[in-house]
Design brief:
The protein contains 14 helices and ten strands. β3, α4 and β4 form a beta-alpha-beta unit. It binds 4'-deoxy-4'-aminopyridoxal-5'-phosphate. The site of 4'-deoxy-4'-aminopyridoxal-5'-phosphate (PMP) has 18 residues, from α8. 4'-deoxy-4'-aminopyridoxal-5'-phosphate (PMP) binds next to α8.
């Protein structure tokens, strides 16, 4: 009878496995997309188990690194292009250029989308930009204009250089648009129209804390404006700021400059940190429009970010870039101050693969057995 019983249980197990996979294929079969642009957005929320178990809060990552070109900037680049198409600066099916000054992810998103939509990308960047980003832009076929690193007030600084290139092209009667992610409101608007509502739906409209860094300010402005206006309980919004950046003092104490430096006088507007994409000593339109939604800022050191990146990789399989690590450190600091069970969402902006030559060169040497207390070190 034992044989009969085990044969029966095998049969039942086999049948339920069959039923499970059938229901999966019926309900979750991914839709067919008409182009890579349709892969943008609707990024998942992932529970970060290690941080949640250690803090007693529920810490989730909004996986912007799942966008097709690997970062939240896909949303921005697409909205910039769609807005330019509405105003007639670009016409789908006809030649046109998108110009941008960027040392970061935006250029990669612009380059990918230009290929997908039939335009050409022209990216101005400082000549000390990391080798993997340069290689990516070149692989994507963008025209790359390398300029000497300079302050934003210098007419040859890379953002100004991109603007000049766009103006020169348009003055010749060729279609083109300057993406201008720092000042262009298509940036924060897409986070208000898409990223924010996604987080609302994914959390059931209930969230205690939202944490993001600030580069252009588009993400934190768009998402926090939406969440503050719509969530059942208004979440506390935290700007996670790397060392050397002025946002921390601006938000917490109303003064912008760390070292009494004047706006824009830095060699580049990226401040003195290993972290890329966030931290600025300059007030951009996309930041200014969202400033009042930010409740406080948490400062995170490079050392904490480097250790956190390794911690998330070995404990959760989350291989993230530097700004995501900054957000995760801020989440732990906040979680330790808030009540057990609080729900926290951080932005996971991009993956570690884009930071191999700089940030991960340090992070890879961190001991795999590092504890969360050693990561935070306070
Ligand atoms: N993380 C990374 C890796 C980025 O490239 C950026 C944008 N520069 C940010 C975070 C910050 O996003 P935002 O520009 O919307 O403030």
């Amino acid at each position: 009878w034992r044989d009969a019983l085990s044969a029966l249980s095998l049969l039942i197990a086999g049948y339920s496995t069959y039923r499970y996979y059938r229901s999966l294929s019926e309900s979750t079969i991914p839709p067919v997309k008409k182009g890579v642009e349709e892969l943008i957005g609707n990024t998942p929320l992932v529970l970060i188990k290690s941080l949640s178990n250690a803090t007693g809060c529920r810490v989730y990552a909004k996986m912007e690194l799942c966008n097709p070109a690997g970062s939240a900037k896909d949303r921005v680049a697409y909205n910039v292009i769609q807005t330019a198409e509405k105003t007639g600066q670009l016409v789908r099916g006809e030649p046109g250029w998108v110009f941008e000054g960027t040392s970061g992810s935006t250029g990669i998103s612009v380059a990918m989308l230009c290929n997908a939509l039939g335009y050409k990308a022209h990216i101005s960047l400082p000549d000390d930009t990391s080798s993997e980003k340069l290689a990516l832009l070149e692989s994507l076929g963008a025209v790359v204009n390398k300029v000497k690193p300079a302050s934003i007030v210098d007419p040859d600084q890379y953002v100004n250089a991109a603007k000049k290139s766009a103006e020169a092209m348009v003055s010749k009667g060729i279609r083109g648009v300057f993406a201008d992610q720092f000042e262009n409101e298509a940036n924060w608007r897409i986070h208000y129209e898409a990223t924010g509502p996604e987080i609302y739906r994914q959390t059931g409209g209930e969230l205690d804390l939202f944490i993001a860094g600030c580069g252009t300010g588009g993400t934190i402005t768009g998402v926090s404006k939406y969440l503050k206006e719509n969530m059942k309980t208004q979440p506390h919004v935290v700007l996670a700021d790397p060392q050397g950046s002025g946002f921390y003092n601006r938000i917490n104490y109303g003064v912008m400059y760390d070292n009494a430096e004047k706006e824009g006088t830095r060699r580049r507007h990226q401040v003195d940190t290993i972290v890329e994409g966030i931290g600025l000593n300059r007030i951009t339109r996309n930041f200014k429009l969202g400033e009042t939604y930010i409740d406080e800022s948490i400062r995170v050191t490079d050392e904490q970010a480097i250790k956190m990146a390794k911690f998330l990789t070995v404990n959760d399989g989350l291989f993230v870039g530097s700004s995501t690590a900054i957000n995760a450190v801020a989440a732990v600091k906040m979680a330790r101050r808030t009540s057990t069970g609080s729900k926290i969402v951080i932005i996971a902006c991009d993956a570690g693969s884009r930071h191999l030559s700089k940030f991960w060169k340090e992070a890879k040497n961190v001991d795999c057995n590092i504890t969360l207390d050693q990561v935070i070190g306070e």
